[in-house]
Write a structure and sequence with these properties.
2 copies of one chain form a homodimer. The first copy, chain A, is mostly helical and 200 residues long. Chain A is 68% helix and 0% strand. The first copy, chain A, has 10 helices and no strands. The interface between A and B is large, with 41 and 41 residues. Chain A binds a DNA duplex (19 and 19 nucleotides) through residues 5, 9-11, 32-34, 42-46, 48-50, 53-54.
Chain lengths: 200, 200
DNA sequence: ACCTGAACACCGTTCAAGT
DNA sequence: ACCTGAACACCGTTCAAGT
């Protein structure tokens, strides 16, 4: 419909896509404005037409990382399932947990999973205040453990992490089990908060 | 005892102390090798005689932050008390949670509180594997929520954080209550893991 | 044992100017 | 509407050399 001018320029989406590819190749420490600009074959200053600063750009990338897929079918309203799928989306991107953690802390990112966790907690019988706290607690657990896990694997690539680098293949394999075990404890604690009300 | 030469030079401790004062004044983003060197009235390159790189220096600072005080008297062997005192030490230093989080993730820091949490969990009847997971879960909760809290106060200073900057004085005051409420849930979950064993 | 001085290869951000 | 080119004020790290 729009008469597209001879040479198409970049839009926000293209910048975010370029940033995601730089992130995948170089990790968060290597995600510089200059490298993103190189990826787009553009001057660094061009990026500042699309985003006011680097943090805003990172927030847009974070949004992509934590976006829920199709909300339609399997909206599995289960605390553990929601937390586990958040973990999986963070693990799907290099340094995903650290990236999301900082956008979140700066107040630049809404976490769809958090909303789902809160309403699920409400449905399980928590009062409003407790449901909010339960959602935050789960989010902190997921981001904290995933951040730690991603940094540990990165450290082992670098070869750092002296004594405590217990990264035998077997141990890597069951990091998911450790996550699930800790998650089960947190969920049990949340359920006990529901039980202490005069539910059912 | 030692014949101290005319002009005393710096040692590791002096470098760490300078770093802590720069951290207090400028926060983690402002904690650069150059500023630390300025504080000591020394060239930047001098710092590399004491520490191989910046991360190692930050790890030494982190160690100071999380060090337990006198281990003698009130070694209150209570999960919530240990977690709360860890939170307080992190809050006592600007950007303390973020600093410790990264040193920890890089495997450059031992967390004394974690050891205490693990043995306390054991004493409460958890098996070895569960006690380790319980300790990690608590550490993730404490660091995650404290990190978030410290970033939020910093964001409010900067004036960023648009809509969700719910930082009324009252709300700041009860962030400790929110922490305690989430902590209670996690601890309850850990206790339920102890109960599921054939304890007592 | 501890530091200087200078260099290298980077950063994020701004701004006038172009098309 | 989107980009260039150049500049500003920074970074962490290395290394030969000094005392």
């Amino acid at each position: 419909m729009n008469a597209s001018p001879a040479s198409a320029r970049n839009d926000r989406g293209a910048v975010v896509a370029a940033a995601m590819s730089v992130l995948a190749e170089n990790g968060l420490p290597g995600l510089s404005m200059r490298r993103i600009a190189d990826e787009l074959e553009v001057q660094v200053s061009a990026l500042y037409w699309h985003f006011p600063n680097k943090q805003a750009l990172l927030a847009a990338v974070s949004e992509q990382v934590v976006a829920l897929g199709e909300d339609t079918s399997d909206a599995a309203a289960d605390l553990a399932a929601i937390a586990t799928s958040l973990r999986e989306r963070l693990l799907a991107h290099r340094d995903g947990a650290e990236l999301v953690s900082s956008s979140l802390a700066l107040g630049l990112l809404e976490l769809p999973s958090r909303t789902r966790l809160e309403s699920t907690a409400l449905a399980e019988g928590l009062d409003a205040a407790s449901a909010a706290i339960a959602a935050d607690t789960l989010v902190h657990y997921v981001i904290g453990s995933t951040f730690h896990e991603q940094q540990r694997t990165h450290a082992s690539v670098v070869g750092a992490a002296d004594a405590s680098a217990d990264l035998t293949p077997a141990r890597v394999a069951d990091s998911a089990d450790e996550f699930a075990a800790g998650l089960a404890m947190v969920v049990a604690g949340i359920r006990s908060a529901a039980g202490s009300r005069a539910a059912r």
